[in-house]
Amino acid sequence: MRRLVHRYRARLIGLAAAVSLAVAAPGVAVTPSAVAVPAAISASVSVEAGRALATIPATGVGMNVAVYDGNMNHPDVPGLLKNAGTGMVRYPGGSYADGYHWQTHTVEGGYVAPNTGFDTFMGTVRAVGAQPIITANYGSGTPEEAAAWVRYANVTKGYGVKYWEIGNEVYGNGLYGATWEIDHHASKTATTYATNLVQYATAMKAVDPSIKIGAVLTTPGAWPDGITGPGDSMDWNHTVLSIAGSKIDFVIVHHYPIGNSQADLLGKPQAEIPNMAATLRSLINQYAGSNAPNVGIAVTEVNANAYKNTSPNGLFAPDEYLTWMENGAFTVDWWNLHNGTDCSRVTTVEGATDYDDGGILSSGASCEPPLNTPFPPYHGTRMITKLGAPGDTLVRAVGSTPIISAHAVRRAGGDLSVMLINKDPVNAATVTLSYSGFSPSAATPTVYSYLKNATSIGSATTGSATSQTVPAYSIVVVQLHR
């Protein structure tokens, strides 16, 4: 397999010229981050069981796959994705989508692996029990090509593909001076994209009016958000939504927070996501008219910029997924199933080997464990299945210190689960729990745990409904009954 690094990850350095990213040399250990906390951590978490934040969507936990990955449909993949609670799978793969022609299964200037065609992909998605989200080719395609894909998928084959993105990171087409996205249109402006987006939506919905169309936006607060490009009178998001806001069904952003240390990375979900989501909802309300309440938020690529295969990213993953869902996203899609590595930036992080591989599963590179070995983000993501299921209600949980992230779910039957994430790499935390709107049973709860550098999830009957010990750099889920 040709192992490629997602272009978005590489271009972050070029785009954020003012930001200095320190990358460890091969074989050099990364020093564990210092966390300014006492030697013994005590924390409290208050759960407001009657204060609903969101319903866990069936499509909430998503995953990207790419047609350059010859193992995206490996026989082990459906079971692995199903066990992680995956409800959405994105295809054909990031920036590749804007060069991908589905009828010929080719990518302009890119490699396409065998056995990665659309029908084979759909077989995997159905085996997982997930829904697909398809990125139609805006950069080198046409509305007619996209409409033909809808016809094949939903009329000819009866797949019922509901979610369709129009392009991937189209703002990377050179409008703002950086080019990583294919775009053959003579004009690269946001105005042009929005105008063409309406044409795509019209052509595609003429085939199947039930589908949902998504518009590419810049991530609020991240480059090039807020910049007015040449030929436009407003920035990308205001321009796109002022033209297409009444014609779309969801907006699309990507989130690759730049963590300058382990502690910095682990603070990003709480530091960035609520404001990003609020800004997106404000834009939707401004431009989508009476349909605004029905316009969703899709975060179709997320990952960390470092510590990708080690414990920090294992903690980051569930915090990222759940914080976005709590703030209204209907899908959060990890980049990527397999991403690959050239083994040139192998480091040691918190006593474990990091391969600089953006995949959630090993690609089987020479320096890596065997193909499809789960990395820590996989186990962290799987912990969400212990917290709740689609249809359950995310409720407010407030902690006394940012060292402990807390998420809580009121289950459909009335029981409650609480996830506690200890972001201190050295010290265990004693967490005191209190509840409003819920009276836990006096029985000892079942507690699931994913420990630092572990290769599986454990469980035990331990602690109490009001007190739990959370080991250093670990995730626990406390399942409580009434």
UniProtKB/TrEMBL annotation:
InterPro entries registered for this protein in UniProt: GH, Glyco_hydro_b
GO biological process: polysaccharide catabolic process
Stored Gene3D superfamilies: Glycosidases, Golgi alpha-mannosidase II
Signal peptide positions (record): 1-24
Domain of life: Bacteria
SUPFAM superfamilies per the UniProt record, alphabetical: (Trans)glycosidases
Protein name: Alpha-L-arabinofuranosidase
Organism listed in the record: Streptomyces spongiae
Upper classification of the organism: Bacteria, Bacillati, Actinomycetota, Actinomycetes, Kitasatosporales
